[in-house]
Amino acid sequence: MATKPIRVGVVGVGRGRSFIGGATATGMELVALCDTWGERLAKEANALGVAAYLDYDEFLAHDMDAVVLANYFHQHAPFAIKALQADKHVMSETAACHTLGEGVALARAVEKSGKIYMFAENYPYMVFNQEMKRLYQQGLIGEFKCGEGEYVHPDPPEVQLGRSCGRNHWRNWIPATYYCTHSIAPVMYITDTRPVKVNGFVVPYDDSDPSKILHMGRADTAAMIVCRMDNDAVLKSLHGALRGHGNYVRIHGNKGLMENARHGDKQRLRVWREPWEKNPGEPVETVYTPDFPNHHHDATRAGHGGGDFFTSYHFAEAIRSGEPPYLDVYRGIDMSIAGIQAWRSALNDSAPVAVPDFRDEAVRRQYENDDWSPDPERAKEGQPPSSILGTIEPSDDAKKLAKKIWSEQGYDGD
Q1: Model's pTM, two decimal places?
Q2: Taking residues 73-87, what's their average pLDDT?
């Protein structure tokens, strides 16, 4: 007998169409879209043959089983809590929360609801990261001691402006440390560790870089977070708009090394065992291109290197089984608040700052009122700036280019 489809509504029209690419093969069916951009919403909903909602509360009343949150980076937790209270399962894209207080509220809401919550961080599911997890679990490289995760993503100002319409779009003010989950998550996933302490370092806003001064962004160029993990390993997370586009993961164990290739086919995996430690007949260095351990065909057709298929797949499997997915609410919060705490560190001369574990209600009570945020809409005394340099005002040339690009996108606001 055929399995009943899981009826899903997506918040964020830009993600609605790409969601289908990874979700249909997992038995999920898109039934509704929600967005505040009416023209784009109507166009996409009509093309996909699904219901359209401008109002989130009305959207939650639609007959569906689950909600996928692909709205703005800093808005996920309140939307997730409302969906859980409406008896919907939730898959939330990054970040899980924008403040530590939101993280506390989200953890409590998931526990109270009894529903499935999945953090839709797709980078762990790239083929080389899944292969590294498999090898690590086999004990091939021993215990995790040191690692690196990189997500470097430069773009010309026209591209940046095209996806950040409006002066206060989150991409224009989010601090450099915050967008850290693409670099931290793969290492956490491979090694099953979590950060307990972070030091944040920032590459400041560069007023000689055209991609910065012709963009409406008011944050710094890039960030590095050094994480102390719960097994005492050290992780270096690098992310931002440096030159040299790519993502990279490196895992040092006490018996070997694993990393994906930095050059050529970056899906390749390199495994290294020292000559005096390897097994007889085993090569010192092995370089190969792995396949996905399962669902290879469906994964290779989905976005983000197959990650979009596996986030949907594990969300669907969790709903059917009733068992939380690996990327549950707690790991989602861990990954998200590491960036928040790293910003606190960066603003305090990179001093170490703890990453609290919100699995513990006693710990949660210490942070339940923490609303520290650089969001311009939450501005009040004591809130942090978006840049290590303080307040940055976009240039007149940036404002002129922004008006042109935004107009072409159909956006007529400031």
Answers
A1: 0.96
A2: 98
